[in-house]
Write a structure and sequence with these properties.
Elements: E1 11-16, H1 18-21, H2 30-45, E2 49-54, H3 57-65, H4 73-97, E3 102-107, H5 109-113, H6 115-130, E4 134-139, H7 153-163, E5 168-173, E6 193-194, H8 199-205, H9 216-229, E7 233-238, H10 244-249, E8 256-258
Parallel strand pairs: 1-2, 1-5, 2-4, 3-4, 5-7, 6-8
Antiparallel strand pairs: 7-8
Helix pairs in contact: 3-4, 7-9, 8-9
The structure holds adenosine-5'-diphosphate (ADP) and ligand VHF.
Length: 272
C-alpha cells in the first residue's frame, strides 16, 4: 500500500523508545543502537534534517546501578541522570563512525509552552540544522516533575515536531504498529493506515505497557493526534527494523501510518 511521496519529507523526527534501546536487564542493546544510528546517518547524508528523540536514560541508569523494578519519581530522576550520560557517550561514538555530529537537548514541558524558552529551543534546533548536526532530545528528567512533565517521550517528540514544523514523525517501539487489541492477545491485528484518529482508535490504544516503556500505545496515539493535527505525518514501526524508515520515506506503508491533516489548514506554531 502506498502512503505519501518521499521527497515531501524534508525534516524528520525519529523517536526511539526504551524497549528498543535497552535489554530487559537494563544493559544497552548495542546492535539495536548501531542499526538505528546507521539509518539516521544515511538519511542525514541524503540531505534531510533529522532530530532523534531518545528515551532510555532511566532504563540505562537502572542497569548501571543494578536497580530493578518500578521506582518512584525521585529514584527515576537519579537513574536518568546516570543513564543520560551513558546514552550520549554511546550515541556520540556511533554517530562519529559515520562522520555525523550530534548535540544533546534536554527539555521540559514548561520550556516548550513558554514563549521565550520555546523560541530559544526553536532557534537552537534550527541552528543545529544549519550546522548539519543531529540534535538528540530527551526530557530533562532531573527537574521534570508533575506540572511540567510530559512523562513520555512520544508526546515530547510530537511537540518537538510541531515546534520545528517537521514533515514526518516516526516512533520506533517494541511493537511494529497499532493493533486492534494489545498485541499479545488472541485475534489482535495490525492497523496499517489511520486516516483519522477517532474515539474508537483512542479507545483501543488503552492497554498494557511493556516492562520498560512509559506511555504505552496510549501516548503514541496521543502523539499522533498532536502531529497529524499540525499537518505532520506519523508512523509507528518496530524498533528492531529501523530500515523500515526508508520504506516510509519512499511512500511504502509499513507499521501503522497516520495521515496528516492538510498543512494549509493548520497554524504554524513555530512563528512567535
Ligand atoms: N492496541 C495496541 N497496539 C499495540 N501495542 C499496544 C496496544 N495496547 C497496548 N500496547 C502495548 O504498548 C507497548 C509499547 O509502548 P511502550 O511500552 O511505551 O514502549 P516504548 O518504550 O517503545 O515507548 C507494547 O509493548 C504493547 O504491549
Ligand atoms: N525520559 C525517559 C523516557 C520516558 C519514556 O517516554 O520512555 P518510553 O516509553 O520508553 O519512550 C528516559 O529517558 O528514560
Amino acid at each position: 500500500m502506498k502512503t505519501l511521496k518521499a521527497d515531501i519529507y524534508k525534516t524528520i523526527v525519529v523517536k526511539v523508545g526504551t524497549t528498543t534501546l535497552v535489554h530487559e536487564n537494563g544493559k544497552l542493546n548495542i546492535a539495536g543502537m548501531e542499526r538505528l544510528v546507521r539509518v539516521i546517518s544515511n538519511i542525514k547524508n541524503s540531505g534531510k534534517n533529522v532530530v532523534l528523540v531518545t528515551s532510555g536514560a532511566v532504563g540505562t541508569g537502572a542497569g548501571r546501578l543494578g536497580i530493578k523494578g518500578k521506582s518512584d519519581i525521585r529514584i527515576k530522576q537519579a537513574l536518568a541522570a546516570v543513564g543520560q550520560g551513558i546514552l550520549m557517550q554511546f550515541y556520540e561514538k556511533l554517530f562519529l563512525e559515520y562522520g555525523i555530529n550530534v548535540a544533546q537537548i534536554l527539555l521540559t514541558k514548561d520550556d516548550l509552552e513558554n514563549g521565550v524558552r520555546r523560541q530559544n529551543a526553536f532557534n537552537t534546533l534550527t541552528t543545529l540544522f544549519e550546522f548539519d548536526v543531529v540534535p538528540i532530545v530527551n526530557e530533562n528528567d532531573t527537574i521534570a516533575v508533575e506540572e511540567i512533565v510530559y512523562g513520555d517521550n512520544d508526546t515530547l517528540a510530537a511537540v518537538v515536531a510541531t515546534l520545528i514544523d517537521a514533515d514526518l514523525l516516526v516512533l520506533l517501539s517494541d511493537v511494529d504498529g497499532l493493533y486492534t487489541l494489545p498485541p499479545h492477545e488472541p485475534g489482535a491485528e495490525k492497523i496499517p493506515y489511520v486516516k483519522e484518529i477517532t474515539p474508537e482508535i483512542e479507545a483501543i490504544a488503552e492497554g498494557t505497557y511493556s516492562n520498560l516503556g512509559t506511555g504505552g500505545m496510549q501516548s503514541k496515539v496521543k502523539a499522533a493526534k498532536i502531529a497529524t493535527e499540525a499537518g505532520i505525518a506519523m508512523a509507528i514501526i518496530g524498533g528492531e527494523n529501523p530500515t523500515d524508515i526508508y520504506n516510509i520515506l519512499e511512500g511504502t506503508n509499513c507499521g501503522t501510518f497516520f495521515e496528516p491533516k492538510s498543512k494549509a489548514c493548520t497554524s504554524k506554531k513555530n512563528v512567535i
